[in-house]
Specification:
By secondary structure, this protein is an alpha/beta fold. It contains 11 helices and 8 strands. Helices cover 41% and strands 14% of the residues. Bound molecules: 3-methyl-2-oxobutanoic acid. 3-methyl-2-oxobutanoic acid (KIV) binds next to strand 6.
Length: 266
């Protein structure tokens, strides 16, 4: 069995030029499967509320829900580093509340690190959480919790001033003690510049090939989420077709009186 990954291992991967593979998971079976095939980091994303609960935005998910999903993922994980997302309103109001909520994801959820969205505006909060020895992943660019400010899920950092701000954000979160940085929905050239400018690993999603790692939502890569598919998603399987086929076969056999057979009966 491999040694469980730590934040030190993830940082070493950048130094050694080894790409970091990250996926989201929200429950025990998916966590177990991806852990067994060697995923480096599992992110219990607040995207759970969109892909699992069917909401349009990530804003409604609660701390209790994130703790619940984190626990399930941690029970399915032996080797990967588990990072739990801090939901909207769990860290924006004040650093004390942020510390308590980050602590809950570690103590009750079992996560080894937390992720939160923002740059310079959350640097003090990152510093406060890191000061109680909870490792933090920062997340800048297209930050889904800022959907109302952004006016939709749009690529960020295309204008020079925005790009300059994102570079400043990256430096600010590194300086505040974040051990890794998610870059979402920004031009590949800007992601390359940020990746070169910071010593912490960058994990891209819609940010091009030059990030130190990549993250995608598990339901997107398996074809389990048909609502919409952004350009940056690559579909590696069509699990929806397999599930629909299996369920249709079950319905047909129940209605046709073929299930249960003798081998399923006592
Ligand atoms: O919640 C999420 O899924 C994320 C992404 C970075 C994948 O934050």
């Amino acid at each position: 069995m491999n040694k469980p990954k730590t934040v030190i291992d993830i940082q070493r991967m950048k130094a050694e030029g080894e790409k970091i593979a990250v996926l989201t998971a929200y429950d025990y079976p998916f966590a177990r499967l991806m852990d067994q095939v060697g995923i480096d980091v599992i992110l219990v994303g607040d995207s759970v509320v969109s892909v699992v609960s069917g909401y349009e935005t990530t804003l409604p998910v609660t701390m209790d829900e994130m703790v619940y999903h984190t626990r399930a993922v941690v029970r399915g994980t032996r080797n990967a580093l588990v990072v739990a997302d801090m939901p909207f309103l769990s860290y924006q109001v004040d650093p004390v509340e942020a510390r308590r909520n980050a602590g809950r994801l570690v103590k009750e959820g079992g996560a080894q690190a937390v992720k939160l969205e923002g740059g310079e505006n959350v640097a003090e909060t990152i510093r406060a959480i890191v000061a109680m020895d909870v490792p933090v992943v920062a997340h800048i660019g297209l930050t889904p919790q800022s959907i109302h400010r952004m006016g939709g899920y749009r690529v960020q950092g295309k204008q020079e001033e925005q790009a300059r701000q994102l570079l400043a954000d990256a430096r600010a979160v590194e300086e505040a003690g974040a051990f890794a940085l998610v870059l979402e929905g920004i031009p590949a050239a800007l992601a390359r510049e940020i990746t070169a400018a910071v010593s912490i690993p960058t994990i891209g999603i819609g940010a091009g090939i030059d990030c130190d790692g990549q993250v995608l939502v598990i339901h997107d890569i398996l074809g389990l989420c048909e609502k919409y598919s952004p350009k940056f998603v690559k579909r590696y399987a069509d699990v929806s077709g397999t599930i629909s086929g299996g369920i249709s076969d079950y319905i047909r056999e129940v209605k046709g009186g073929q299930f249960p057979g003798e081998e399923h009966s006592f």
